[in-house]
Design a protein that fits this description.
The protein is an alpha/beta fold. 40% of the residues lie in helices and 19% in strands. It contains 9 helices and 9 strands. It is globular, with a radius of gyration of 17 Å. It binds guanosine-5'-monophosphate. Guanosine-5'-monophosphate (5GP) binds next to strand 5, strand 6 and helix 5.
């Protein structure tokens, strides 16, 4: 088999992107999807939609009962309670793409990333790449959380507390991106996607 004959016979990568709320990880994932570098795996959540968020694009916004039904139907690859709401990844948002050789990026908290890292699905293990996005300081993180202008002081305080806890987990990831400015962050993010797409580890026989 030659490299030429391998095209189209490749498993897509599954890039997990974690980092505290306000680290800019969602923006990085969205931008990669908007430029067709990867597909964005839309998650389910029980949190209320923020102004401007669209069902099916930003998240699938579900009631707690609907979310529990997804769990009992075994529709979720992982799920976790984050900042007092449930978040989960639909298997359908992952497998169809990676099996067709398309790369997928997903925004996920550290608990969900742990579940995927430890899952025994061989396809997921072969597809997996993990990135932690780290804000450059606590002040910057607080400024980003406050700057959204959509969350109450109470929600911001909870997110700040959880973020500091979440930042302890950076060393479980393959890559860590120390955030500086949007363009530099995106160049680094793009480089990971482009290099990992060349990895022979996802070529199928
Ligand atoms: P937000 O409410 O700011 O959109 O997201 C809150 C947190 O939930 C973020 O840390 C984000 O990474 C995480 N999150 C988003 N989707 C998922 C998911 O499908 N599973 C898990 N475990 N966490 C998620």
């Amino acid at each position: 088999m030659t490299p030429q004959s391998l095209s189209g016979n490749r498993l897509g990568m599954l890039l997990l992107v974690s980092g505290p709320s306000g680290s800019g990880k969602t923006t990085l994932c969205r931008r990669a999807a908007d430029t067709d570098l990867a597909s964005y795996a839309t998650s389910c959540t029980t949190r209320a939609a923020r102004p401007g968020e669209v069902h099916g694009t930003d998240y699938f916004f579900l009631s707690t009962d609907e979310f529990k039904e997804k769990i009992s139907n075994d529709d979720l690859l992982e799920y976790a309670e984050v900042h007092g709401n449930f978040y989960g990844t639909l298997k359908s948002e992952i497998f169809t793409h990676i099996e067709a050789g398309r790369d997928v990026v997903m925004d996920i908290d550290v608990q969900g990333a742990d579940q995927i890292r430890n899952c025994d699905d061989p396809l997921i293990q072969q597809a997996l790449v993990e990135l932690f996005v780290m804000p450059d300081s606590e002040e910057e993180l607080l400024a980003r959380l406050t700057g959204r202008g959509t969350d109450s002081d109470e929600i911001i305080a909870t997110r700040m507390k959880n973020s500091l806890e979440e930042m302890q987990h950076w060393d479980k990831y393959t890559y860590c991106l120390l955030s500086t400015d949007r363009e530099t962050d995106y160049k680094k993010f793009q480089s990971i996607l482009i290099s990992e797409a060349l990895s022979v580890s996802r070529i199928l026989d």
